[in-house]
Write a structure and sequence with these properties.
mainly alpha, 0% strand, 7 helices, 169 residues, 2 domains
Amino acid sequence: MKKIFCKVVDFFENLFLKLLRLVRLNSLAEWYIKHKEGMRYLIFGFLATVVNIFTFWLCETLWDFSTTVNNIIAWVTAVIFAYLSNKWCVFESKSNTSKELFIEFISFIGARVFTLVLETILLNITIDYLKFNSLLMKIISNIMVIILNFVFSKLFIFRKEKNKDKKTN
């Protein structure tokens, strides 16, 4: 599954870069390549956000769950997508042993639980008590979550592997 996922990502990324070069935006293509990790994080963060918001909306539309339950279902779906895309394509994690995978996954989930709690508090206050638009508040809260999740992933979760790579080179 990882190989197929990464090949699809590489295909679309290369297509995008070829299109940029075709319309003579070579400097933008080079800038993208230079900032590939951050750009991929933004792209997959956006896609995880779409998964999150769509799942939240779907739960809200199809079932009569509370805001908290809708948000948790949306969160679980988005976190599974985010972990796999971050591990395979964004930070290109090299963890292989059971211990490394466990620590990485638990760290990832822990950081996401922290941002889930912050997001849930914000949504409960703004939607349930202040009666703001639920979809708008979900989008706003996701901007905060994306920023915090990148910081946690970059500085804490996938950092050790980057340091290992530097020591072996």
